[in-house]
């Protein structure tokens, strides 16, 4: 028997760049493979006794945070935009500003951000704990595909319910904006809804919902992927939960930018317009 | 000492005398190699005990044998067939013949005891609910638990009860091969003996092939037909084999390799000298 003694290798900036590159490429590769593994099980709807509790967790349990978020977004938008519009004597048009911003941008993005924090982190922590305590191996050993059993119901719940929650956030946000504008800032309720109606189009509403579909899918995939690749121990679970939120947040912002441009160009193709972005 | 004869064949087309086999299997995680060129085979009905110090790759070896991990190189054989050549369906069907008792029992937190034990049956067998209930209660009774625990959550159970529920869950599928990953770790001596007795009874009742990972020499003496001792790769030079003992438990006291005798007697003298140096 002999004992091998290894000396820690010296690292330079080149080693660090190389290591970072390998980490980034392998992370993206791992995420892509994870998405591919999800495609086949997605064709079969999970059993009700598995799906319903997760839908309840994602949907019903998120209602308070979503309603509070939506309400305050609407109210803050009213307070912040009123002064600027009043200078230009456009305060009667405050409804259009609040509602277009809510429906197209802030509603989907902030609702998704709140849900990434509430749902994404919880999913990553739950699946991560299952990984650490070998419950995922146990699923495998008992003949249940862990992707089908754990990821598919969470993906479907996020994909279906995050857009629904976003619509609720938009609705309560509109109410919050209307309440502050008409009851505290003195804007006529008639003009509030008149200009809202004339500026907010069906395409804006659909844009917001399309964005939230993508946000929901991204939150679910990222959170489940982080959970499945959780490191050892409590520290690993904590890191997975944090990464799930941070990566989801970055994905939401990046998707919002890309989808914003894509949907704007689609609008111009469908309904005409002078300028095309990119 | 292997028990001759064969259990139910795992596949109809095979002629191999071995239920499970590793051929020159290596496996690592990231930059860390855990197993290198491991080869051994397990006969039907045999109870093989894997021993070795922490981090030597015992659990990884059982997960490779059970198909929960894939080797980086080399091949795993189930009843003479390379696992990598099995179709998805064949792989699934074969693996349902395995039962696995995990180190921490790995009970599903979100399910109660009954649902845990019934899980494999509900996922894989189209049985009426009355039959599922009958099997679950029977398996719980076999491991010495009453139906009163059925509604309890895993968090409400003691370590020994968790292990027994984990064993009932694995046995519910009537496995032909049972894997026990450190079945007595963390248990008091009495409960350890209960688990050892359950391993023996399971083998006697269902004539399963058993692979037991343990540090506990009492378990080794009670349940083993054959013992394999692995040594950590990090403490070996490139040419050395990782299997430092392969034989019946009766041969352990006569082993001449100091690595084996140190482990068997719990002698840390040489290791302490290394630490001091």
Biggest interface and residues each: A-B, 18 and 32 residues
Largest sheet of chain A: none
- The shape of chain B is globular
- Series of H and E elements of chain B: EEEHEEHEHHHEHEHEEHH
Structural class of chain A comes to mainly alpha
Question: Mean pLDDT of chain A, nearest integer?
Answer: 88
Short synopsis of the structure:
The complex is a heterodimer of chains A (278) and B (277). With 278 residues, chain A is an all-alpha fold. Helices cover 81% and strands 0% of the residues of chain A.
Structure description:
The complex is a heterodimer of chains A (278) and B (277). Chain A is built from 9 helices and no strands. Chain A has 278 residues and is an all-alpha fold. Chain A has one domain (49-262). By secondary structure, chain B is α/β, with parallel strands linked by helices. Chain B has 2 domains: 18-97 and 177-188 and 209-252, P-loop containing nucleotide triphosphate hydrolases (Rossmann fold), CATH 3.40.50.300; 102-174, no CATH class. Chain B has 9 helices and 10 strands. Chain B has helices at 58-65, 88-95, 113-124, 129-142, 159-171, 189-206, 217-223, 258-265, 269-276; strands at residues 20-29, 32-42, 47-51, 73-78, 81-82, 98-101, 177-181, 209-213, 226-230, 243-247. The N and C termini of chain B lie far apart (41 Å).
Which characteristics define this entry?
heterodimer; A: 278 residues; mainly alpha; B: 277 residues; alpha/beta; Rossmann fold; globular; disordered N terminus
Please write out the topology.
The complex is a heterodimer of chains A (278) and B (277).
Chain A: H1 13-39, H2 48-58, H3 63-87, H4 94-132, H5 135-141, H6 146-184, H7 189-199, H8 202-228, H9 233-271
Helix pairs in contact in A: 2-6, 3-4, 3-6, 4-6, 4-7, 4-8, 4-9, 6-8, 8-9
Chain B: E1 20-29, E2 32-42, E3 47-51, H1 58-65, E4 73-78, E5 81-82, H2 88-95, E6 98-101, H3 113-124, H4 129-142, H5 159-171, E7 177-181, H6 189-206, E8 209-213, H7 217-223, E9 226-230, E10 243-247, H8 258-265, H9 269-276
Parallel strand pairs in B: 3-8, 3-9, 6-7, 7-8
Antiparallel strand pairs in B: 1-2, 1-4, 4-5, 9-10
Helix pairs in contact in B: 3-4, 3-5, 4-5, 5-6
């Amino acid at each position: 028997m002999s004992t091998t003694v290894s000396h820690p290798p010296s690292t330079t900036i080149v080693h660090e760049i190389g290591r970072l590159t390998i980490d980034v490429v392998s992370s993206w590769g791992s995420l892509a493979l994870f998405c591919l593994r999800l495609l086949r099980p997605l064709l079969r709807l999970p059993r009700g006794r598995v799906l319903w509790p997760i839908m309840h967790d994602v949907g019903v349990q998120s209602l308070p945070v979503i309603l509070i978020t939506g309400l305050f977004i609407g109210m803050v938008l009213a307070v912040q935009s009123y002064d600027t519009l009043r200078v230009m004597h456009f305060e009667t048009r405050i409804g259009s500003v609040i509602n277009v911003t809510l429906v197209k941008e802030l509603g989907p993005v902030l609702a998704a951000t709140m849900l990434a924090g509430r749902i994404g982190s919880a999913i990553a922590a739950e699946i991560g704990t299952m990984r650490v305590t070998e419950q995922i191996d146990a699923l495998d050993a008992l003949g249940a595909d862990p992707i089908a059993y754990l990821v598919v119901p969470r993906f479907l719940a996020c994909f279906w319910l995050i857009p629904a929650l976003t619509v609720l956030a938009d609705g309560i946000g509109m109410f919050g904006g209307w309440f502050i504008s008409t009851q505290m800032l003195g804007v006529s309720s008639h003009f509030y809804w008149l200009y809202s109606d004339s500026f907010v189009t069906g395409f804006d509403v659909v844009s917001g919902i399309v964005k939230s579909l993508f946000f929901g899918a991204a939150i679910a995939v990222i959170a489940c992927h982080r959970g499945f690749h959780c490191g050892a121990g409590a520290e690993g679970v904590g890191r997975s939960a944090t990464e799930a939120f941070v990566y989801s947040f970055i994905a939401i912002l990046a998707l919002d930018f890309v989808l914003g441009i894509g949907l704007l160009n689609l609008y111009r193709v469908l309904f005409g317009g002078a300028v095309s972005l990119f | 000492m292997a028990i001759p004869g064969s259990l139910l064949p795992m596949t109809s087309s095979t002629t191999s005398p071995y239920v499970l086999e590793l051929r020159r299997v290596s496996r690592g995680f990231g930059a860390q190699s855990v197993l290198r060129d491991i080869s051994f085979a397990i006969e039907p009905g045999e109870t093989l005990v894997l021993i070795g110090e922490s981090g030597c790759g015992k659990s990884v070896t059982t997960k490779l044998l059970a198909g929960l991990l894939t080797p980086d190189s080399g091949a795993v054989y189930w009843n003479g067939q390379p696992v990598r050549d099995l179709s998805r369906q064949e792989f699934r069907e074969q693996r349902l013949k395995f039962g696995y008792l995990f180190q921490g029992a790995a009970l599903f937190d979100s399910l109660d005891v009954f649902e845990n034990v019934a899980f494999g049956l509900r996922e894989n067998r189209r049985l009426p609910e009355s039959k599922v209930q009958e099997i679950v209660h029977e398996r719980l009774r076999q491991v010495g638990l009453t139906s009163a625990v059925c509604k309890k959550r895993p968090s409400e159970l003691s370590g020994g009860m968790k292990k027994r529920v984990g064993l009932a869950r694995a046995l519910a599928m009537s496995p032909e091969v049972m894997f026990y990953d450190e079945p007595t770790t963390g248990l008091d001596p009495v409960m350890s003996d209960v688990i050892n007795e359950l391993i023996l009874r399971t083998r006697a009742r269902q004539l399963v092939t058993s692979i037991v990972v343990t540090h506990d020499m009492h378990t080794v003496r009670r349940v083993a037909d054959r013992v394999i001792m692995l040594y950590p790769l990090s403490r070996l030079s490139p040419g050395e084999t990782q299997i430092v003992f392969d034989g019946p438990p009766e041969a352990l006291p006569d082993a001449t390799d100091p690595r084996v005798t140190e482990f068997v007697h719990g002698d840390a003298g040489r290791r302490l000298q290394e630490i001091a140096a």
